[in-house]
Write a structure and sequence with these properties.
Layout lengths: L9 E7 L4 E7 L8 E2 L2 E3 L2 E6 L3 H10 L10 E3 L1 H9 L8 H18 L10 H11 L8 H20 L2 E3 L3
Parallel strand pairs: 1-6, 5-7
Antiparallel strand pairs: 1-2, 2-3, 4-5
Helix pairs in contact: 2-5, 3-5, 4-5
Length: 169
């Protein structure tokens, strides 16, 4: 798990969810290293620094001798994904938001050292992800839809319950 000093490029990433919203720092992996969300060591595990504004995140990074990789910020509209997952029979999956959420949840779990909190992904998950990536989630089989919902629901639970440090110094 990377520290802010040893991390690859850092990016501010705004997450807007129903239960929790905030700006986190996302670390782009170097070479073959996977991406992850920055989490800090703490007693009993790792904690996620969460900022109210991008400016706060930028200042936090700057105080550690770093700069953000881009001046802007990407936003994950997690509310859209949560809305769909609450009633997937009557609602259409928002493909872009679900894809972003799936990737975010994997990076979040990796940063927290909590991969065990997401479902173990098998071939059905892979097929669902491929169709999602290709914008064809309307062609999901019932098993693929179930697999995508499994990842989304576990990821939302991880995001809503992971230990955080609000506005770290």
């Amino acid at each position: 798990m990377a520290t802010i000093e040893a991390a690859g490029n850092l990016y501010a990433y705004r997450v807007r969810g129903c239960g929790r919203s905030g700006v986190v720092l996302w670390i782009g992996g170097r070479g073959d290293d996977p991406d992850q969300v920055l989490a800090l060591p703490a007693a009993g595990g790792r904690r996620l620094p969460v900022f109210v504004t991008v400016r706060q995140a930028r200042m936090y990074v700057r105080r550690r001798g770093r700069v953000l990789g881009t001046p802007g910020v990407n936003t994950l509209e997690l509310r859209r994904v949560q809305h769909w997952s609450a009633d997937p029979v009557r609602r259409q999956a928002p493909p872009g938001a679900v894809l972003e959420a799936w990737n975010f949840f994997e990076d979040l779990a990796r940063g927290l050292g909590s991969a065990h909190r997401l479902p173990r992904q098998g071939p059905v998950h892979g097929a669902a992800y491929r169709k999602l990536f290709e914008g064809e989630c309307s062609a999901w089989s019932s098993d693929e839809r179930r697999a995508a919902l499994e990842v989304v629901r576990a990821g939302v639970e991880l995001w809503d319950s992971c230990p955080v440090i609000v506005k770290p110094r």
